[in-house]
Design brief:
Length: 145
């Protein structure tokens, strides 16, 4: 069995693309003076779109472990982007809600997020992007247990 170089492996290239994009996007966010990470912004966006989700479901949606999400939530509470309050039906859980400051940072960052995505995808045709999305979804489905 001959071992191929890492960059011949699709999964290596997927990971490389993700890491490179995240580094590029974070650099752009920081350069514009925003004091927020991509993971923090993603959590805010999930809470905005799904305010009923528990922290465990948010962790699943962001592909993060529960402890990481708990740390991100704490930072966002300290930055006054979200409020955490006891859940109305389960005292062991918390409800998360965006503050006005949280809504504002999402709105302020949105044009930059769109610009970052556009830059990353600029030489791809729409059909390439659509095919890539279909292919990645198939890979994810194939790996579900």
């Amino acid at each position: 069995m001959e071992l191929l170089p890492l960059d011949y492996t699709v999964f290596y290239n997927i990971e490389k693309a993700i890491k490179t994009y995240r580094k590029f996007a974070q650099k752009a966010i920081t350069a514009k003076g925003f004091d927020i990470t991509i993971d923090q912004w993603l959590l805010l966006k999930v809470v905005k779109e799904n305010p009923e989700l528990t922290q465990q479901r948010i962790a699943d949606k962001l592909f993060k472990d529960y402890a990481s999400v708990t740390r991100i939530v704490q930072l966002l509470v300290e930055k006054k982007y979200i409020e955490r309050s006891p859940h109305s039906k389960d005292r062991r859980r918390f409800s998360l809600a965006l503050t006005a400051h949280g809504d504002a940072i999402i709105a302020d960052l949105w044009p930059l997020i769109i610009s970052n995505r556009k830059t990353a995808l600029e030489t791809l045709m729409n059909e390439d992007i659509n095919q890539l999305n279909r292919t990645l979804k198939i890979i994810a489905d194939n790996c579900k247990s």
